[in-house]
Amino acid sequence: MTLAPPAPQTARAAGGLCATARVVARADAAGGTTRLPVLDGDGPFALRRIRGHGNQARVCVVGAMSAPLGGDRLGIEATAEADSALHVTSAAATVALPGRTGEHACYDVWLTVGDGARLDWLPEPLISAAGSDLRMTTTVELAPTARLVLREEQVLGRSGEETGTLRSRLTVRRGGRTLLDQETAYGPGVPGWDTSAVLGGHRAVGQFLVVGPEFEEAPAEVRLLGDAAGDGTRDGAGQGVLAPLAGPGALATAVAPDALRLRRLLDRAARSAAAG
Questions:
Q1: What does this protein do (predicted)?
Q2: Hey, which of 168, 174, 177, 236 has its CA 20 to 30 A from 144?
């Protein structure tokens, strides 16, 4: 099972930088571990192998320059081949910034997980700085027995500033069938994004997604998070909900005043999903 992303381009285009980084994890049958036959950084993405845990290979994405800027076309491809285990994180938050031309930037992530493989995609937050315009897509292809843990966090504006424009789409397919397909948009030019029906004044939004065959037999239970749970959580800590998908997985969505409180909510969701 493979994706068909655009051909890589590592060049400074008229409107910005074009670059795609790639990582491939492959099970080592002899050693019972996961190796990384492909670990290719590009443009602003430097890929570093860090200490693994058990049979899991771990990769950290390190920012080599400011990006994405307006006009940039950036991408990351991560593939966990059959029976491998891959964990991807990042060294720091990604900050979307305005560019010289006024064009929007594109940041595309392609994740592929083979049979019996597991991919943990756990980057640091994406920050939408004032004046920026970013279109982000995350596309995931899962084999029927694959496992996925994915966290996505978005912070609207740096401290004391307004947000930029951020449009994001997450598509997950399992065995060729769509499991999740959602799109969000925030910032200038987006109607109603800051109303009580959407963010209600919060500036950090995120989700935690877990998919695996085990949810076919034991679907996740609906659980409220933070203020919504009525469990004594301090007022203003944000709120969210963990709910089963119409398929073998669970999705937590949360909003909070800032990145720290958002992370706490999503960590709580991760513990709840693991507990079943």
A1: Required for maturation of urease via the functional incorporation of the urease nickel metallocenter.
A2: 168
